[in-house]
Design a protein that fits this description.
Elements lengths: L1 E6 L4 H10 L6 H5 L4 E3 L5 E6 L4 H6 L5 E5 H7 L4 E5 L5 E8 L13 E5 L2 H10 L4 E5 L5 H5 L5 E6 L3 H5 L2 E10 L1 E5 L1 H6 L1 H11 L14 H6 L11
The protein binds 1-O-pyrophosphono-5-O-phosphono-alpha-D-ribofuranose.
1-O-pyrophosphono-5-O-phosphono-alpha-D-ribofuranose binds next to strand 9 and helix 7.
Length: about 240
């Protein structure tokens, strides 16, 4: 049996839909229950429903052989896992945003730029590349509020529909990365259980390959796939 760690929240519904489309179904009774470990009807797969940031932890430690989470999580945590498959759903952007009149790029600012975010490492790295000194204000949710109320000059956060920004009078200044759902695989499991992992990847692969994104902060995760077999047998 293969264990998959799945991200609860934003990606959960689409992930379960992709699994169901692949013939891997979880019963509604299990989904409605408070159980944290679920199984598919055929008894082939076990699912752990965890917070998005915890998905790579379960996979890296080998508790789950594979997992599904957003690329934002991988950028932030840089887990030591294979990233063989872009699932082609859950598209959104990681952006720098703020109030329309914010002077966040002012060259001669006297104090560091205050940036509120749920992604402190990605944010630090991004502004470091721009040679912009920042004070990171780590938050765990409703990050937009920080820019609205002046806790920070700007935020780094996920934008999906753009509604939260628009309804709070904020705009996107720059896009840091295009995000989508990724299937990740434990390194040892990929080699030791290759047949079963490959079968899973084949079943989950999108019908159309997703567009390649090129963004400022992506290179390190791309580099981490080096060493992964170049001619992926399932694509
Ligand atoms: C995410 C993100 C934004 C919002 C963007 O928050 O942090 O707040 O979604 O979505 P939109 O562009 O479609 O409006 P989430 O719903 O995960 O909740 P959180 O703010 O509590 O983290």
């Amino acid at each position: 049996m293969i264990t998959l760690a799945l991200a609860k929240g934003r990606l959960q519904e689409a992930t379960l839909a992709r699994l169901a489309a692949a013939g891997i179904a979880v019963s509604p009774e299990q989904l409605e229950s408070r159980r944290l470990v679920l199984e598919d009807a055929a008894g082939e797969y076990r699912f752990l429903l965890v917070k998005p940031g915890d998905v790579p932890i379960y996979v890296e430690h080998g508790i789950a052989q594979a997992g599904v989470c957003g690329r934002d999580v991988l950028l932030e945590h840089e887990p030591d896992v294979y990233e063989p498959l872009d699932l082609g759903f859950g598209f959104c952007r990681l952006v720098v945003a703020g109030r329309t009149n914010a002077s966040w790029t002012a060259a001669n600012r006297l104090s560091k730029l205050r940036v509120a975010t749920k992604y402190p490492r990605t944010t630090q790295k991004y502004f470091q590349r721009r040679a912009t000194p920042v004070d990171i204000i780590p938050l765990t949710g409703s990050v937009e509020l920080a820019a609205v109320l002046g806790l920070a000059e700007c935020i780094v956060d996920i934008v999906e529909t753009g509604r939260t920004l628009a309804e709070n009078g904020l705009v996107v200044f720059e896009t840091i990365a295009v995000i989508s759902a990724q299937c990740i695989v434990n390194r040892a499991a990929f080699h030791l259980e290759r047949a079963r992992v490959t079968q899973l990847l084949e079943r989950l692969a999108p019908a159309m390959p997703p567009p390649q994104s090129s963004t400022v902060c992506e290179d390190h995760t791309r580099a981490k796939t080096t060493g992964f077999p170049p001619a992926s047998p399932w694509r």
